[in-house]
Structure prediction request, 106 residues.
Amino acid sequence: MPDSIDQKLEQLLSYNEALPPEAFVLDVMRGVRRKQLTRTVILWVFGLIGALFGLSGAIMLSGPVGRLLPLDLGIPVMGLMQVTLLIAGTAAFYLWFMNDDFHLGS
Prediction:
């Protein structure tokens, strides 16, 4: 008697629907790859546009910032600002390229 109950239970719980054809799965995966490529292209284009705006802003501000900081320390202000921008840009590029993120807390 318990064997018949187990068989009925297995029959009720079994998955009887046929699996989708392989062509369907391949089509879905092709669509996923196409969307990922589109996403990558969009991120690259807008990232480059943002970098160009940042670079042009730094170039436009280099003159006024040099006039705001009249330091007589023997250090050229423009050179100091360019080195600071280069360090910040290098750090930002490194963090972006290596895909590093900082975890705050646990």
User: Anything to note?
Assistant: The chain is about 75% helix and 0% strand.
